[in-house]
Structure formats: structure tokens, C-alpha cells
């Protein structure tokens, strides 16, 4: 959604208005003209709507940036055409999604008020009164009521998209993304490692190995000396250093999520049952998974939402008659 950036654009939209002003409202022989620039299903989009969006969004400013501080009139016109093309696509997509909201998604006045407060805060205004003053001074909306209706429409599009598009992110996806982020980074853990292997591949033997692993884990958690336990259970080399990527993901996650001094296990492995006591973590400058996971979740949800929006809009366009007349 481009709404958060729009108010800042309104404040600096004076120059942009020079380019847009020649579009939707023309004086010709005493008549004020408007025209249809697109038909979406049974709905129309007017040039005046298009020019309002262009002037109140970053689209024109972004298109003008490539021409430097003093663009020529020709460059302004080229940038305006480019911005209008992008803005028309945005308006068509918004209309499509609003058309798709047939299962009664509603936007309340309270929803609009909360969003206005967010816009005000993110654009440096102390309250929505200052936001209103900036909008009215910009001249890009007929009045405050028009701006409120536009905001409500934007919220409807956003909520409908969230309802129609699948943007969920699983814990497995978060862990996989974390592994990709730390791949190639030397992250290590110093451990005291106890592996209990069944004497033979029978249920009885596996149960016996698991019972030993449980007993060791319980005694370590109660404070017994791990080295004394290693001697008692004839563990020859309990000290070990583990790097990420050396063991199965589930085991790796359990070990690297544990705090220093914590006992982990028993964990089932291909060899038997593993119990470890974490002695030291060496993560370099990389955040541990527990500290990074919410940030990763937000990133993945944003990416998932963007993909879902693109797919949804493509699907809706394929099912709807659209006639562009710009």
C-alpha cells in the first residue's frame, strides 16, 4: 500500500501539480471536461481520479527523479505519462479487489481513525488535525471527506487482499530462512556430548539406550558433574565442538537454541540417543535464532503478502473485462 507515503507527497506536490494540471480538468469553450480512462467490469475510472492519485502519491516524484533537479517541460510530460500508466494499473487493481469483496468485508469509522493516526505519526504530524490541514492545503482532494473516502477504499483493498490471499508463514520456513542467512558464517557451540547407541536393533535394546540417556539428562539437570557422569557411563570423548550444518536441522535447532549451561536431550539420532550440555556459544555477530525469528517472520510475511497480491491481481484480471482508454 502506498498510502503511508502519500501525505508526504501531498506536502511537496506543488511542482507535480504543474504536470498533472493539464489532464483531467480542462477549460475549453467554457466547459469543464473529464473522460473515462478505463472500464473494469461494470465500473469506470475517470481521468480526474487518475490525476488525483498521481498528484497525491510518490509516483510522479519517483518518475521525475531521473531527470535531476530542473527537468524540462518535455521531461515533466514524459514523467507524467509514466506515472499515469503506473497509477492506472494501481486503480484497476484496486477496483478489481473491491469487486472481489463480495463476502462483506467492511471498514468501520474506527478502522479509518486508527489508520489516519498511523499516517499522521509516520509523516511527522502530532495528530490527525495537522494531517487534515496538510491534506486540505495540498489542494489534491476536493475536501476532507474525499480524502476519508479514499483512505477507506485503500483499507478495503488491503483487508480484502489479506482475506483472499494466503500469506501464512510456517515455523519451518522461518528456520529454513535463518539457516540460509547464517550459511557460510562460522557459528559454533562447545558441548559435552553423550551418545547412547543400542547394542542391537531391537526394541528392547533401543529402550535400554533411551533409559540411559534419560538418566544422564536428568542427573545433569539436577547438577551432577558431567565429567563424572562421562566416566561412569564410559563416554571416552565427551568434549566436542559443533558447527551449524553438521547435524540434522532438528538437532541443530535444539542445541543452538539452548542457553549456555543448559542440558538438551535425549534427542534421537541415526546413531542412537544424544544428550548434550552446552558449554559455550560462538555466534560471532549473528543473532541467535530465538532473537532473530520474529524479525524473519515479519520479513517472510511481507514477501509472502507481496507475492500473494501479485498472484491475486493476475487472477482477477484474467477473469474480468478491462478496457483501458488512456
Keywords for this structure?
alpha+beta, single chain, elongated, 3-stranded antiparallel beta sheet, 2 domains, 326 residues, 4-stranded antiparallel beta sheet, Triger factor/SurA peptide-binding fold, Chitinase A, domain 3, 9 strands
Description:
The chain contains 13 helices and 9 strands. It is an alpha+beta fold and 326 residues long. The chain folds into 2 domains: 3-168 and 302-324, Porin chaperone SurA, peptide-binding domain (Triger factor/SurA peptide-binding fold, Orthogonal Bundle); 186-282, Chitinase A, domain 3 (Roll). The protein starts with a helix and ends with a strand.
Elements, N to C (H/E): HHEEEEHHHHHHHEHHEHEEHE
Q: Output the radius of gyration.
A: 31 Å
Per DSSP, the total helix count is 13
Estimated helix fraction: 55-70%
User: How big a fraction of the residues is strand?
Assistant: 5-15%
CATH superfamily of the largest domain: Porin chaperone SurA, peptide-binding domain
Shape: elongated
Describe the largest sheet. Answer: 4 strands, antiparallel
Q: Give average pLDDT, whole number.
A: 78
Terminus-to-terminus distance: 23 Å
As for the number of domains, it is 2
CATH class of the largest domain: Mainly Alpha
Class inferred from helices and paired strands? alpha+beta
List unreliable stretches of 5+ residues. 1-32
Largest sheet, spatial ordering of strands: 6-5-8-7
CATH architect. name of the largest domain = Orthogonal Bundle
Count of DSSP E strands? 9
What fold name goes in the CATH topology slot of the largest domain? Triger factor/SurA peptide-binding fold
